[in-house]
Design brief:
The chain is mainly alpha-helical and about 425 residues long. It is built from 15 helices and five strands. It has a three-stranded antiparallel sheet. Strands 4-5 form a two-stranded antiparallel sheet. A hairpin with a 4-residue loop joins β4 and β5. α2 packs antiparallel against α3 and α3 packs across α4. One of its GO terms (biological process) is regulation of transcription by RNA polymerase II.
Amino acid sequence: MASDILQVKCDICAEIAHEPFIECCECETNLCCTCFASGKEKSGHKNDHKYAVRRNDFPLFENCNWSAKEECKLLSALATYGYGNWEEISKSVHTRSKLECQEHYKKYYIEKVQYNELKLIPETEHSLFLKPLTPYLYNTELSTNPPRNNQSDQLLAGYNAYRSEFELSYDQNAESIFNIEDSYSDDDDECMDALKVSLVCALNTRLRERQRRYKIIQNHGLIMPNRLLSWLKRFDATLSRPKSERLLPFMQFMTGMQFDAFMESLNLEEELLNKIVRLCEYRRNGMRTMHSARLYMQLKKDNDLAYKEQKYATSIMMRKFDSQSPVKHKLYFGNAMGKRYRKASLPLDIIDLPGFHLLSESEKTLCSNIRLIPRNYLEIKKLLISENNKLGFLRLLDARKIVKIDVNKTRKIYDYLLSEGFVSKPN
């Protein structure tokens, strides 16, 4: 049936004219080779008319090795067996495999159509530019690779993500209320009917409570709490870990997507503030273009590195000189009870660190000298002021118990807060 489109009947003998056959150029009459060789004529057709020999072995498309005969067989088989049944289509074409039939039709009839007559389907944005499928919305691997247990399932606390249910359900004995012995034989007992109705209502109530708890767990990201805490690490550079953990209670009022958007917006706010601080620094130093700002940062980095190396080399030379000097050698190294020489640390560059824009000029100098991150300093300041307001005073010993950092840094912070009037000594 797939070759009917190629069959041409002889207009003289009414038999099928196999290739090659003769076509009259004047009256468009088709003749088989036998009738043409015998010079047969028909009304309107004479044997002295001009003629042409027809064969279907020419290609229809450019740069294609498929003949017109194979193209016709392919289209006829597609109309008979339907798109996608390439096994039967290749059997009808005979000379091509199913992969060749599929690739040829996709290339010349769908992707690279060379003739406008073949463009039956209008081209749209979706047909020309296919959009990628949303992850986890259309999972094409489930049909070939069914869900199996893996090591990551242990972090889900018994939750099976593929079935969207827990291994151990909440109130798992809810269905056991129907395990009662029906010792009554009278079917018209109203008390027994009322009991059954009450049991069904009780079961529905417990099932609704189970579903409500599942929905809360899924919507608020409570399935994998360990992964949630590790996810907060990405905000340590801007929001810091203590602040991120203090924001976790907001998950009670938001869904997972809303909380993600909330955290990302706060992270973006901190990044913009840090960028504004850097731009203000560039403007104070006379920079008005980004090229000059990049050059300034590079020169500043090189200058700080050179200053650090120079100071380190100077300290080494001083140590060597002091060890060779009779007087200073005895002062620094001879006396065991005396103070030993200690290398001074360089001030910390805190301009791009989180919380820099919240500091005063004196606080910026303090944080830079004691090499403390502004965000951590603000948290320490808040704790010390809160303790001072609770007790009415604050001692250095209490400050050291609250703040678990170097005691020398704690003393400097305590002295600064005391001089600025944030805390007070006991009377």
